[in-house]
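anyone seen this seq b4? input:
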Amino acid sequence: MDFSAQQIAAFVQGEIVGDANATVNTFAKIEEGKPGSITFLSNPRYEHYIYDTEASIVLVNRDFVPEKPVKATLIKVDNAYETLAKLMTLYEQSKTQNKGIASTAVVAENAQVGKDVYIGAYAVVDEGAVIGDNTQIYPHTYVGKNARIGESSLIYSGVNIYHDCQIGNHVTLHSGVVIGGDGFGFAPTPEGYNKIPQIGNVIIEDNVEIGANTCVDRATMGSTIIRKGVKLDNLIQIAHNVEIGANTVIAAQAGVAGSAKMGEWCVIAGQVGISGHLTVGNHVTLGPQTGIISSIPDGKTMMGTLPIEDKGWFKVQAVMKRLPDMYRELNALRKELDELKKGKTQ
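predicted toks r here
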């Protein structure tokens, strides 16, 4: 379906500069723009692409003033990146959704399935499970006993949701996600390790997205909780009884150990490790490969395997580059000092 610049501008409350009748039917990066595509420019570093792009429409910030003529039609908006995301969401929502239950799916007789639900081939919905309206469950997914999934959620193929876990509305779980696997609980004995039964569950609130092959373990007792708006990347481990605060984002290969509590609006980079039974405050930023071994107050930015505040970390990195020279200078000074001491004793 084609949309004109005039239609798009009306929807996003933008200002058209150029041909209001220009039409688009797809999205593209600005450097790969083709006729019939819409793209955006928000980072000044990419401005040079706007003068050569073949895209028909470019979203730009209202304060953008081109230095040269631009072939494309511009739509000026308050925030080009956010506007593009809004349009892409609308585009996704306009696609026809699957509906119905595949003949090879297995749905327990006492499971509750809402309106306009899709359950794909070889998926299993176990006893007592509840599936909300408009939710999509793709093939080879398992929904355990008494598990609950809210409305308009998207569960891709190969997801496993264990018994008693609760998934909110508008949640997306990508392939390979495991929700509610046992927490890592073992009691040491002289003969080995005895398993501690994990009798809690996982609660995932609304508008959460979890990337492929990420695991969220069930609580030993009580609940492991992922609050509303959280975004988890691929290959993340969230341990038993962890709580992740609202709107926190965590990048790939990070791990959060048992019973750790994380605040709201945190930004956690890749390969971060957070020890168990500690608290990370609100609005905390943790740089790549940061290791957290003690609680962090609100608003801090931490970096490094042994974490220190960001300004101190940058100073350490600057000094590390000079360590070989500093080591040579230190040895030379030691040699001079030894010679001076030797001269005084003679």
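The chain has a mean pLDDT of 95. The two ends are 96 Å apart (CA to CA). kinda curious what u guys think
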